[in-house]
Write a structure and sequence with these properties.
alpha+beta, 8 helices
Amino acid sequence: MAVRCRLFTLTLFMCSPLFAQACPDCNVTPKSLTEMRNCYRPLLVFSPSVNDPRLKQQSARLDAAADDMMDRFVMYTPVLNTTKDFQAPLDTPFTLLNVKEMHLIRSRFHIPAEQFTVMLIDEDGSEKLRSTRPVTANRLNTLIDTLPARKREMQRPHAN
């Protein structure tokens, strides 16, 4: 189903000013990791504060490569203790989950509230990267491009 759904991506991207959508059935702004499965590659950015310089650095790096993130169906997903005063990225596809969902994600991945961590989750729900420092877009692109699903995406005509 995921391959069939990907054929609609270019059309959906042209209809949506900010977000590429993996499949017509995928929520443009998912509210849980479950909703992202088989639709996006969540980039979970755990941060102790919305003012943490590492969070701001990660967001800036993603914004500088927003087209790459859209092409690879990366969904920037900050995991914060509070969403108050969160500054949304300019161009990067993102979703802001509710505090309860963020708490469940912290618990699932064993990330303490005071710890900064970046995690890339593949469309199938498996963890592909974990770093305690902001990650470059080049590192993300290189890693994602080695994944079997991404290799299939790139072989399609008019692929991202």
